[in-house]
Design brief:
It contains two helices and 30 strands. By secondary structure, the chain is mainly beta. It has one domain: Distorted Sandwich (Beta-galactosidase, Chain A, domain 5). Strands 10, 11, 12, 13, 17, 20, 22, 23, 24 and 30 form a ten-stranded antiparallel beta sheet that branches. The chain has a six-stranded antiparallel beta sheet with strand order 16-28-25-21-18-19, with no helix packed on it. The longest helix is centred in the N-terminal third of the chain and has 5 residues.
Length: 342
């Protein structure tokens, strides 16, 4: 487990555009700790949840801003079979594994592999058998400024033996500003015509179901208030259905659009991945220390986690999460925070 004394020595790396976006990062979990974005009048606000002290990311929990892995999201009963070999994983959510286990990638102090005024690359190594996963994995996460209002995130991994890999960025957004009113007053659009239903423990049933006519239908932009499928809001994987398009020099598909009508701050999220976990932060209860004295209550932020589907290793009908030696896992996320000036 990461030594808290080392965490206190971490320094913040900040990338910024003059008059534009500014992103702050730390090596613990290759994590976003701040993201300044402009409203329609050009006024900047920090739009991601976090903590003032690096050690709080270990003690409070919640994965705020982290790069999660080896397998982001859930694996049922902490096990899967690969080429006839059963892997018995660390279980940290009841009977299941969540976000790679108790000592997942979010708790590692990643090395800084390269740094410039417009990018930083973090790197880490996961030995064979860590948290129960087969094969050693080398991973990196690069944050690159693109234009005045966008950040490109590139997550890469290679493996020494056949294994399962699914990395995800776990930022919680509130476009009104971190510590502002609940995020449900903002409007959401998802480029997803289907989702994966779950059981009572949030494990996919294996079905892929159409969103049409359900509380999961965000195929057109609409306020989240009063539009949730239940009192706890969303904590579900959506199956991204838009084709890949050329943007920012890469081929990405649109995944989500979030708008704060009051300020005009907006987020367009693009990815190479096939899934998007949308979580509206029902677990926040006011006890979590935020930044600048904020306390995060219920629905304080929304996580938009591009990913493989949850529990994919146990559902052969889902798009594969297998990574073999000689293959490259490459997962891109583009965060476009150009404000809506209408």
């Amino acid at each position: 487990m990461t030594d808290p004394l080392d965490v206190q020595e971490l320094s913040t790396i900040t990338l910024r555009r003059e008059g534009g976006i500014e992103i702050s990062l730390i090596a613990l979990g290759a994590r976003i700790t701040g993201l300044m974005a402009a409203d329609r009048e050009g006024v900047l606000a920090d739009v991601v949840l976090g903590h003032d002290r690096p050690e709080d990311y270990l003690t409070v929990g919640g994965y705020l801003g982290a790069t999660c892995g080896r397998y982001a999201n859930r694996i049922a009963h902490g096990r899967f079979s690969l080429d006839g070999r059963e892997s018995d994983l660390d279980r940290n959510e009841g009977a299941h594994q969540l976000h790679g286990g108790r000592d997942g990638f979010d708790r590692k102090i990643w090395g800084v592999a390269s740094l410039s005024p417009t990018h930083v690359t973090f790197a880490t190594h996961s030995p064979d058998g860590e948290m129960g996963f087969p094969g050693a994995v080398d991973a990196s996460c690069t944050y690159q400024l693109v234009g005045d209002n966008s950040v490109l995130i590139e997550m890469i991994a290679t493996a020494s033996a056949p294994t399962m890999v699914n990395l995800a960025n776990h930022v919680y957004f509130n476009l009104a500003g971190q510590g502002a009113e609940p995020v449900l007053g903002q409007s959401l659009k998802l480029h997803a015509s289907h989702y994966t239903p779950v059981d009572a423990t949030k494990i996919p049933t294996g079905e892929i179901r159409a969103v049409q006519g359900t509380g999961f239908d965000f195929t057109t932009q609409r306020p989240m208030t009063g539009a949730m499928p239940g009192p706890d809001g969303l904590d579900h994987n959506f199956c991204l259905s838009a084709p890949l398009q050329s943007i920012a020099g890469e081929y990405l598909r649109p995944a989500a659009e979030l708008v704060d009508p009051a300020s005009g701050r907006a987020l367009k999220l693009w990815t190479t991945e096939v899934g998007l976990q949308v979580y509206t932060g029902a677990h926040f209860d006011g006890s979590q220390p935020g930044k600048a004295g904020a306390r995060y209550g219920r629905f304080a932020g929304i996580a938009l986690e591009t990913q493989k589907f949850p529990d994919t290793p146990n559902h052969p009908q889902f798009p594969s999460a297998r990574l073999d030696p000689g293959q490259l896992y490459r997962h891109l996320v583009l965060l476009d925070l150009t404000p809506d000036k209408t």
